[in-house]
Design a protein that fits this description.
The chain is α/β, with parallel strands linked by helices. It has three domains: 5-123, Probable tRNA modification gtpase trme, domain 1 (Gyrase A, domain 2, 2-Layer Sandwich); 127-210 and 383-428, Four Helix Bundle (Hemerythrin (Met), subunit A); 226-373, P-loop containing nucleotide triphosphate hydrolases (Rossmann fold, 3-Layer(aba) Sandwich), CATH 3.40.50. The protein has helices at 29-35, 90-101, 113-120, 126-137, 141-151, 154-178, 186-207, 212-218, 232-240, 283-298, 317-323, 339-347, 361-373, 387-402, 409-427, 433-440, and strands spanning 5-9, 16-24, 48-54, 61-70, 81-88, 106-108, 220-225, 258-264, 267-273, 301-307, 327-332, 351-352. The strands form two sheets. The chain has a six-stranded mixed sheet. Helix 6 runs antiparallel to helix 7. The two termini are 16 Å apart.
Length: 447
């Protein structure tokens, strides 16, 4: 990262009532000197000034804008920052950006560079930066809520707390390495072992969230599975309220897995319609059935759907082996059943619907939302939201489980050091240059 002052459009490029251009760096105040008539000597940080913006070379007026100045370190990046709130026409934006490009030691920001500078200036750690990225990308209320909690430091505080405990243990061990003639008192050994034991238990419990944090970001996978002509495609079309997939009375119409994204009570859900499971000599249909079983294995929930007028839940014996305890039995075409037949199916734990007439669908959506919601505890703001967090925590756990006082104290200390280093990879409390480009490269240009 160089020391040049960076600038970028922080709102979407195109026609809009207002657009925001952000400038950050040691020379940010040059923007005000070169492109406005404001006197920087009397400029108050965090005040909005209505001013005319001029071209930095020709001094021709460009727009009437609001201008705000944030003095370092009290800004998003920790550097001097200027924000121009101008009219969002393409002509105005192009003129201001071109004018900034002609200022000495100014350059266009790279993707995520504002957030990256905030990280380097200790305005946020990596979990908070990624929480910010998730907040920007959030499409459902649940994603927004958990991203905000992460951005506010929920995971940071948890992981830093664990790391601090490990560093305390490491400090004790280093002290006895420096004074090898001293025996470690049993009370110190017991205290350190107890700390490590508690951390192993806490991290293990944290890891056992079954990837729900990642699912919250990417979408919970719900697979509609069952025999041909059970009404799977009709159900999916009824759920999304459009013809997302082809519906036909011809068995084997659906031969591939089709994904449709939906927001169910704030949760991001990916519904997958699969090929009808049956015996077939058609190689293409056979491949579709294999894909269906693979989707079932990966699913968070399986809607085991059958034609209640001709079949029973017993047809899902093979699917039960793949989906374990994730199945919800869906008895479709309940409009063709008698009251007694419906009652018997409900006693067997089946959920009755009629995809053709939209009967039972609102209740089904409530059931799905309940299933997803039950996977979140009161500490759900501490969910693991990225695979790299999980990998680092597993590395930490492996090192902690190797720790004991039955080997050379230098080796025991190394176990603790490596465990603390693994936690540091998550928050950025170590040298992590190799992962910074990957993280911040996913940001939009103006962030």
């Amino acid at each position: 990262m160089d020391n040049k002052t960076i600038y970028a459009l922080s709102t979407v490029y195109g026609k809009s009532g207002v657009a925001v251009i952000r400038i950050s760096g040691t020379d940010a105040l040059q923007t005000i000197l070169k492109m406005t008539n404001l006197n920087t000597l009397y400029l108050k940080p965090r005040y909005a000034y209505f001013t005319k913006i001029f071209d930095s070379v020709s001094h021709q007026p460009i727009d009437n804008s609001l201008l705000l100045y944030f003095k370092a370190p009290h800004s998003f990046t920790g550097e001097d920052t200027v924000e121009i709130q101008c009219h969002g026409s393409k002509a105005v934006l192009s003129a201001i950006l071109n004018s900034l490009s002609r200022l000495p030691d100014y350059r266009l920001a790279e993707p995520g560079e504002f957030s990256r500078r905030a990280f380097y200036n200790q305005k946020m750690d990596l979990t908070q930066a990624e929480g910010l990225a998730d907040l920007i990308d959030a499409e459902t209320s649940a994603q927004q809520k958990y991203a905000l909690r992460q951005m506010e430091g929920g995971l940071k505080n948890l992981y830093d707390g664990w790391r601090d405990e490990l560093l305390n243990v490491y400090a004790y061990l280093e002290a006895y390495i420096d004074f090898p003639e001293e025996d470690i008192p049993d009370s110190i050994k017991e205290s350190n072992l107890n700390t490590v034991f508690k951390l192993i238990k806490a991290i293990d419990e944290h890891l056992n969230t079954a990837n729900y944090g990642e699912r919250l970001r990417e979408g919970f996978r719900i697979v509609i599975a069952g025999p041909a002509n059970a009404g799977k495609s009709s159900l999916l079309n009824a759920i999304v309220k459009r013809n997302a997939v082809i519906v036909s009375d011809v068995a084997g119409t659906t031969r591939d897995a089709i994904d449709v994204n939906l927001d169910i009570k704030g949760y991001p859900v990916i519904f997958t319609d699969t090929a009808g499971i049956r015996s077939s000599d058609n190689p293409i249909e056979q491949q579709g059935i294999e894909i269906a079983f693979e989707k079932i294995r990966q699913a968070d929930m399986v809607l085991a759907m059958f034609d209640a007028s001709t079949d029973t839940p017993e047809i899902f014996t093979e699917i039960e082996k793949e989906s374990k305890n994730k199945m919800l039995y869906i008895a479709n075409k309940s409009d063709k059943l008698t009251f007694e037949q419906c009652s018997n199916l409900e006693k067997q734990g089946c959920f009755l619907i009629s995809a053709k007439f939209n009967h039972g669908l609102p209740e089904l959506m409530d059931k799905i939302a309940e299933h997803i919601g039950n996977n979140f505890t009161s500490d759900s703001n501490l969910l693991i939201t990225r695979k790299r967090y999980r990998e680092a925590l597993q590395e930490c756990l492996e090192n902690l489980r190797r720790f004991n006082f039955d080997k050379e104290i230098e080796l025991s200390a190394e176990d603790i050091r490596l465990a603390a280093r693994a936690l540091g990879k998550i928050t950025g409390r170590i040298e992590v240059e190799e992962i910074l480009d990957k993280i911040f490269g996913t940001f939009c240009i103006g962030k």
